[in-house]
Amino acid sequence: MGIKTHFPHHSLYADGAFFFYKAQKKVETAAGAVYNAGMSRLDDLFAFLRIPSVSAQAEHAGDVERCADFLVDKLRGMGFSAVKHLTDIHPIVVAHSPHVEGRPTVLIYGHYDVMPVDPLEEWKSAPFEPTVREGRVYARGASDDKGEIMALVLAAEEVMKEDGALPLNVTFLFEGEEERGSESLFKFVQNPEVQKDLACDVIVVSDTGMAAPDIPSFSYGLKGLCCFELEVSGPAMDLHSGIFGGAVSNPITALCEMVASTHDARNRVAVEGFYDGVMPIQNWEKESWKRVPGMSNTELAALTGVPALRTEEGYTGAECVYARPTFELNGISGGYEGEGSKTVIPTRAVAKMSCRLVPGQTPEDILDKVEAHFRKVCPVGVRMKFTRQHGGSAYLSDPNSAFGKAAQKALEDTFGNPPVLVREGGSIPIIAEISRVLGKDALFLGLDLPDARIHSPNENMRLEIFEKGITMGKTLLRLMAQA
Which residues pair with 235 in a beta bridge? Predict the structure, then answer.
């Protein structure tokens, strides 16, 4: 697998999983028929989760391709025509259902790659051995995005079995680079022949969140993203801090000063022009977001374990998450970090940063402004290097289109409550580009709960939500055929 762990082997039936399986063997579907699918549904999910498809780490390149092969085999077994497209980095999988003349086509996007598992010691069970505890499956990718992908794949499979065929045309588009910027997919969708192959009436994405177990979320927007790295260097070698301290600029100190200059006392980004063109939050959005469970300032503080929120002045936590641009320091390193003391002035320090963007901003413009800001505030005695990394534009769609209303009904029929309308604080940079080149709206029907711990140790998905995700997918496909 490429990752060594100190965890013992975890049986598929450990920690109560056997009892869950047993209970699932006789369950009423929405149509009233008894099915025996509990075991096979989880077999598919667990086999998917066992593949350590970490796209950012070269040692897992073979695992990422193996994961693409797993999807191709699964989809071909369902009767889809599935193709693995090789790229310079990781494969792209495109699969088409048997064509139904005169019916709409839905393009379902997802990513099969996962984040690295570090810090490994914080996992309570091996990250690539799915383990069930208290009604949740724990594994890297359980929520982001393998659990959501598999729910929609199984939804299509079960509709075909129950109805004899799908009532519309389905195209699956799965990539293995979302967690590292979707570089290959950005290039792939520029090809006119690919655009013909992916032609559709609507795009569906299940890679977002939901407000609570019984309160689904219909997302009509995503934040954009730009990532960058700032390196500050000084002396040609590490220096004795007593002999040279006070005379030579310390790169770590300089870096901290530069990073601290990016925000003012109101917690606003202090980069000149950063807010130019930012779309204001509409009054109906502010009122709607007040009703989203778990998103009050007090609830957000409790969920994240902080003493209190520190938001941009004049905005609630929900408003900042959904619709305000941000500037974040993601990592910082430099100097001696080992045990004990080593009194040196280090030769360099590095900070990794990112901005989440909203409609009205572009990654290129923000990167220009951020770089100009750092050059302006860079102290004397050090040199700076600004490296631009991946990014993507923000995205906003119409939640009240015919397909949008069908999606909202599928969520309400499944979870028993109307969905809350939100924008996502996260980013899927490729979605804005796919929507642009295909000329179609994207709809976001996520299954990630706030406590799913995506990108963190002990990532999980409630098995109840996975099951409802399949039901929602089946309802969605049937309703979209009518829309």
Answer: none
Please report which confidence band the pLDDT of residue 374 belongs to, taking 50, 70 and 90 as the band edges.
Answer: very high
Same topology, domains 14-222+394-482 and 224-278+325-391? Answer is no
Distance (Å, whole) CA 168 – CA 26: 29
Task: Determine the Cα–Cα distance for residues 391 and 373; give it in Å rounded to an integer.
Answer: 19
pLDDT at 439: 97
Q: Which residues contact 261 (CB under 8 A, 6 or more apart)?
A: 270, 373, 377
Residue 386 clears pLDDT 60, i.e. is over it: yes
- 23-32: long-range contacts (C-beta < 8 A, 24 or more apart)? 24/467, 29/471, 30/413, 30/471, 30/474, 30/475, 31/162
Please state which CATH number belongs to domain 14-222+394-482.
3.40.630.10
Closest by CA position to 158, among listed 471, 480, 479, 420: 471
15's CB contacts (< 8 A; 6+ apart) are 131, 132, 133
Per DSSP bridges, beta strands 224-233 and 217-219 are: unpaired
pLDDT surpasses 60 at 35: no
Domain positions in the chain: 14-222+394-482, 224-278+325-391
What is each CA distance from 176 to 102, 230, 298, in whole angstroms? Answer: 32, 27, 37
pLDDT tens-place string over residues 285-303: 999 999 899 899 999 999 8
3 state SS of 205? strand
Using left for φ > 0, alpha for ψ between -120 and 50, and beta otherwise, residue 319 falls in: alpha
Contact 228/310 with Cβ under 8 angstroms? Answer: no
Residue pLDDT, tens place only, 202-255: 999 989 989 889 999 999 999 999 999 999 999 999 999 999 999 999 999 999
Q: Give φ, ψ of 383 to 5 degrees.
A: -115, 150
| Pairing of the two strands 202-205 and 442-445 | parallel
Which amino acid, residue 68? A
Architecture of the domain delimited by 224-278+325-391: 2-Layer Sandwich (3.30)
Structure tokens at 18: 């056997």
- What's the whole-number mean pLDDT along residues 342-352? 97
149 Cβ neighbours under 8 A, 6+ residues apart: 48, 71, 110, 111, 112, 174, 206
